[in-house]
Amino acid sequence: MDTIASLFSFITTPVSWVIVQFHTVYGALFGPNTGWAWGLSIVSLVILIRICLIPLFVKQIKSTRAMQTLQPEMKKIQERYKNDKQRQSEEMMKLYKETGTNPLSSCLPILAQSPFFFALYHVLNGIASGTTIGVINEPLLASARKAHIFGAPLAAKFKDGAATVHALGATVTDVRVVTALMIVLMSASQFYTQRQLMTKNVDTTVKTPFMQQQKMLMYVFPVMFAVFGINFPVGVLVYWLTTNVWTMGQQMYVIRNNPTPGSKAQAAYLERLTKHVTHAGKVRRRSEKTIVKAIVAKGRDRNEFERKFINALNKAGLAAQTDGTVVNSTAQAAAQTADGLETTSAADTSAGAAGRRQQPKRQSKAQRQSGGPKPAGGSTSSTSLEKSDEPQDAKPAAAQQAPKPGSGTRSKAQSGQRKGGPQRPKSPSKK
Question: φ and ψ at 149, to 5 degrees?
Answer without folding.
Answer: -110, 110
